[in-house]
Amino acid sequence: MRVKLTKRSVEAVAPEAKDVLVWDSEVPGFGLKVTPSGKRVYFAYYRMPSGQQRRPKIGEHGVLTVDQARDIARQWLARAAAGEDVSKEKQASREAGTIADLATRYLTDYAEVYKKARSVETDRSNIKNHVLPLIGSVRVKDITRQDIDRMKLAIRDGKSARKLKAKPRGRRVIKGGEGIANRVLALISKMMSCAVEWGLRDDNPARGIRKFEEHRKDRFLDEQEIGRLLKVLDAADASRSAPITGTTAIRLLLFTGMRYSEVMELKWGEVDASRQCFRLVDSKTGARVIPYGKPAAKALEALRRGAASDYVFPGSKADKPLALRRVWYQLRDAAGIDASATLHTLRHTYASWSVMSGQSLHQVGATLGHKSPQTTMRYADHAMEAIRGYSEATSAMFLDMQRRK
């Protein structure tokens, strides 16, 4: 049957035992299907160059007017004539479903394939704690720039922050703030880029959304704090009030400037004691060699390799590394160091004092394993302090010359 589809002609079609198809006389390929239950559905029909037939659904009568459905049909048929498979794109969109569905595919098809294990866990945590509670139910094809911007503001304002039930290792706290909002925004942008690549939508609505300006926390331990910390570590070893693996790991963080993950995931096979260096198979910046000095070597001598674990700092389970944070909190408090000092502060401490002792930013960046020189520039102020000291020494030398005359 072929007629000009209008509201009257559409509603005049009587249901039958099988689907009734009515073709529009104005736009070839635009049609109406009336099911035995009386549902009226608009569709577009076209053939692919391979000869495959496609009949994607446009929408139901009543939800769409005839004119709206006809306009959509014109657009789809024009795209099909250009070689696009509209039906396949709609199917992919249905498969993607919600942001929660996209997140599942992102983790399995992208993150676990191309990212390091620790980064995958960070993504998984941010998805679970922030993305899913705030926008998980929104459909991929429907999410807008405004939705994502509202999510960013909600994370900043702590709307996804909460305390989780206590576990044997202590209560976990999900925090909000500008920093985590920026991390989640970057994650969503990557997820939406994947959605575009996979044909789930045509654009990335997260692209170009402005991040919050972050103020880096360059907290480092001063001379008195370092002295108190080392005394507390010695006392803990003498009294066995803290595990030797914990005190040694903290010394290694302070004496080498290594990343927390590099120390905690360090394996005995990566320790080259004869050449006094660590040969990391992998790290945040890939494989690298980290020389270490006598204080770190002496700290490592206190450990004995256990047959049960390959980790230098094994946890309660041999196949897992030590959970160091609780030990750090205990020893930090005993040393009278405030709570703003984290385990990452030890890396900043190593870097800051290295620069203040006269090492160049380039040297410090190489030691820390920085991929970009810009990362090391955060310590430039300390370099200025060192240079000021050289200037003062030179000036003092000139004054001594004057006095000797």
Strand content is 5-15%
Task: Kindly report how far apart the N and C termini lie.
Answer: 115 Å
Described by strand count, sense and barrel closure, the largest sheet is: 5 strands, mixed
Name the helicity range.
Answer: 40-55%
Q: Give, in spatial order, the strands making up the sheet with the most strands.
A: 1-2-3-4-7
Spans of 5+ residues with little confidence (pLDDT < 50)?
Answer: none
Query: For this entry, what is the oligomeric state of its chains?
Result: single chain
Morphology call: elongated
User: How many strand units?
Assistant: 12
Q: Can you write the helix and strand succession as a string? A: EHEEEEEEHHHHHEEHHHHEEEHHHHHH
Rg over C-alpha atoms, rounded to the nearest angstrom: 32 Å
By helix and strand content, what is the structural category?
alpha+beta
User: Averaged pLDDT, please?
Assistant: 85
Total count of helical runs of at least 4 residues: 16
Summarize the structure.
By secondary structure, this protein is of the alpha+beta class. Helices cover 50% and strands 10% of the residues. The strands form 4 sheets. A 5-stranded mixed beta sheet has the order 1-2-3-4-7. The chain has a 3-stranded antiparallel beta sheet with strand order 10-11-12, with no helix packed on it.
